[in-house]
Design goal:
By secondary structure, this protein is an alpha/beta fold. About 25% of the residues lie in helices and about 25% in strands. Strands 3-2-4-5-1-6-7 form a seven-stranded mixed β-sheet, with helices on both faces. It is globular and about 35 Å long.
Length: about 140
C-alpha cells in the first residue's frame, strides 16, 4: 500500500481533491472519500458536480459509485483508493492500494503522528508539499 500525505498550505482541499479524483478515475479505479464531518462531505458532493464547467466527476453518497463520499469505510471497504479529507488517519482495509491523506495546519500534529505510526510497516509513505507557484512537490 502507498500513503500520500498532502500538506494543504496554499491550495484548499476543495481545489486539491478534484485533481486527485480525476486521476484516479482516469486510471479506471474507484475512490472512497472519507470524512467525519457531514457538512464537509455535502460541500465536496456539490463541488464534484461543479468544479469545472466542462466536466464532472460521477459520484454519490451511497451504493456502488465510481466515487463514494462517506463518513465511515462501511460499504466502501472494497475501494482500492481512499481519500481522508478531514485530517483523521484511519487504518485502511485489506485490499487498499493507495491512501490520499489531506491535512492542514490545524491537523498537522495528527499527520505527524500518523506518519510515525506507519514507519516500519509495509507501507510506502510519501509527503507532498506545495512550492511557491502552487505545484505539488515531493518533500523529504
Amino acid at each position: 500500500m502507498r500513503a500520500d500525505f498532502y500538506y494543504l498550505t496554499r491550495t484548499p482541499l476543495e481545489k486539491a481533491l478534484p485533481g486527485i479524483a480525476e486521476r484516479v478515475r482516469a486510471s479506471g479505479e474507484k475512490l472512497l472519500i472519507l470524512g467525519e464531518d457531514a457538512e464537509l462531505l455535502d460541500r465536496l458532493d456539490l463541488l464534484l458536480w461543479t468544479y469545472r464547467a466542462d466536466s464532472f466527476l460521477p459520484h454519490g453518497r451511497e451504493g456502488d459509485q465510481p466515487i463514494l463520499l462517506a463518513t465511515s469505510i462501511g460499504e466502501g471497504a472494497a475501494y482500492p483508493n481512499l481519500a481522508y479529507v478531514d485530517g483523521v488517519w484511519r487504518d485502511a482495509p485489506e485490499g487498499t492500494v493507495r491512501v490520499f491523506y489531506f491535512f492542514d495546519e490545524a491537523t498537522r500534529d495528527a499527520a505527524r503522528n500518523a506518519w510515525r505510526q506507519l514507519a516500519g510497516l509495509p507501507i510506502e509513505r510519501r509527503y507532498w508539499k506545495q512550492e511557491e507557484g502552487g505545484r505539488w512537490a515531493e518533500g523529504p
